[in-house]
């Protein structure tokens, strides 16, 4: 069953802090809290295009939902109840901070049909958290995550790379500790310097250096592989490229690309194809022509930007010809090497 989220953005609502990288008004592309009528209109618009048999969640994104005063939380949640009762929407998803979780609040959410809670964790390194003004520690994340799962919610973890004080080693350590908490899903966001934030000021003063696109891809590639090995899905890599975020002067620095996740997958496929080709040549000897066999849905990931992956591999192995053959029966994310005279 295909899953759909209906996103409702509540920019900065409930969050008591201003983290150094954050300008929720720009990230959420909205300056105002949506009215009841606007929320209902958004729901109807999405449902008109979503198949009736699909699994649908209403997702409150942008703010720290559990930090909102209880009456306001209930007002938002009550608005969704008719859709839950009719079965057209099967659950509610919220995002919040790890230090805004308690047992009573979780019981309230469960009573209103909340199924998934995503925590904006960012890092599990205490120094990185402190330098980013997150105001909680890694242990707070572990306690909140355990409580969320004990109460029967699906747990999502949102991570960021490239924060002040961050390193590759700290990112990988965060991944391994996240895996130990066994979330049902993960999002990964490279840090961007947004105009008007404290991070923007640090960047202008030379106190912060953003990751390059290539550096961010390399880090996320290894993070992706670790989560994949642990069977934890990454449901998004990179910020959603809305019009406000892509406006002139909004992003001052950082590895922004509208298809960042695809670039990471392409980097993984290039490594995978290189390994497969090397094994084939080591076993059967060199050749002028070789074939890469893949599932047709993996074509763009194998080719890379402007066929850069294929060109790289062809040059690396001194091949006269390197052709791609697509097979619907080939398993997704697998690469198969063959010669002209063989299967």
Automatic annotation (TrEMBL):
The keyword Cytoplasm does not apply. GO terms for molecular function: 4 iron, 4 sulfur cluster binding; catalytic activity; metal ion binding. CDD domains: Radical_SAM (cd01335). One of its GO terms (biological process) is tRNA wobble base 5-methoxycarbonylmethyl-2-thiouridinylation. It comes from the Bacteria. One of its GO terms (cellular component) is cytoplasm. Keywords: 4Fe-4S, Iron, Iron-sulfur, Metal-binding, S-adenosyl-L-methionine. The keyword Metal-binding applies. Residues 1-226 form the Radical SAM core domain. This is Elongator protein 3/MiaB/NifB. Its cofactor is [4Fe-4S] cluster. It comes from Syntrophomonas zehnderi OL-4. Pfam families: Radical_SAM (PF04055), Radical_SAM_C (PF16199).
